[in-house]
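Recap from last week: sequence in, structure out.
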Amino acid sequence: MPRSVRILFAMAVIVLGLAALLLLLTISESMLTIRAHLATSEPWLAAAWWGLAGALALLVTWLVWRILRGDDSAARPPAERDVEPPDEARIERDLERATELGADTAVVRAELAELARRRESGEIHIVLFGEISTGKSSLINALLPSAEAVADVRGGTTRALQRYRWQSPGGDTLVVSDMPGTAEADGSLDALAEDEAKRAHVVLFVTDGDLNRQQHTALQELLALGKPLLLVLNKSDRYSDDDLAQLKHRLLGVIAGHTQAGFVSVSAAQTREVVRIDADGSERKEMRTIEPQVADLASAVQRLLDDNDNVLDRLRDSATFVLAARKLDHAIAERRRAQAEALVDGYAKKAVVGALAAITPGSDLLIQGYLGTQLVKELAALYDTKVRKVDTELLLQLVQQHVGKAHTLLLAVAGNALKAFPGVGTLAGGALHAVAYGIIFRTLGRALTTTLATRGELHPRQAARLFEEKLGEDLETPARRLAGLVVGRTNTDDGR
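Predicted structure tokens:
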């Protein structure tokens, strides 16, 4: 650093130091003066003054904290801002709103109807997870030797659930659903598996040894649901006492920290291969019938039911309401997306017509500016969002800057689209600009829709960046449709 700069820094430090010292002396003198006056005044006056000073200091501290902390709730998607779990009353209100929007709520109503049916029946629903090789079928046969399986193919999938009825030792009627895998290569739960687990009261996860990566992933996701869960080790008869103790220790470590989870080991096999030595010394193998050791599992399930009798239905209902709310949000989002697409297409056509109708210089800019403002307002209203005028103006200003940079590209795309229509070509300058305006409005509408759907409010700069990105995507197909509109409109005007 040059010597002259160092001298300037040193002088600045000296000046700041003197200013700080002067401020300290001034404050000290004022405090001493105030203290002297308060010492000779009434006690209540001194207490009131110090109380007022303390309240003012707290107020200033709180204001500084609020300013520095900011309000980041608006920066989160709407789904993340809502931390209250949904209840039945809220679901019903949201259903009414979704119906008014025209959303397809059949799936949500079916979910609530199934919940009502399960409530009325008083049945306890248990869902069984585990790989095929873990012996789930043998376990079910051992627990429910006389039960009849009923296949239940869930809507939207070809995977069938096998459901079994079981009368527990405590007299409860249980419905056991055998879940055919998670259907994800990495072991994570797909929608069918997760939904079925949420609907159930109790989850059983069956393994026959140490968990592989896929099993571990699936189990962790099931534990995260907060449902009563039993980790069941099947085929325990294959292990020696020492090996079984070590395996049990490792499996207990997987569910450690989850108070709602338990562990039980069973042996569901009903036959065993033995080697028989005959009188002549020859050996032969034969299968012998043995008694399955599943009583511990039945007792563990009964204990879960007894210990959680007051909360099982509440947990099941709460999880089902979350599931219904998720499906309802999806239905509303899909309906809004369809309405937004129709709205954007309509404004793209209006932009084309407006460009063709502009007869005086600059009038097309006025028309497109008005249409742009109305597009922002209508999309915001569709997503229940209030948009400030300044944000709309900033967005349109930023979009105009991006359009200026991409002007050549837009005209080239419009020209290529018009070449598909004989007799028009690229000579019609008005047609070129009309198609370009249509592309601009379609791209702006898509960017706005994405921003409002994901952010819950208008962020002009983010929407403008998204607009710029979408300008680089495939524009040929929409350009051809818009060119067809231009040609049709031009031919209609010529025929008059």
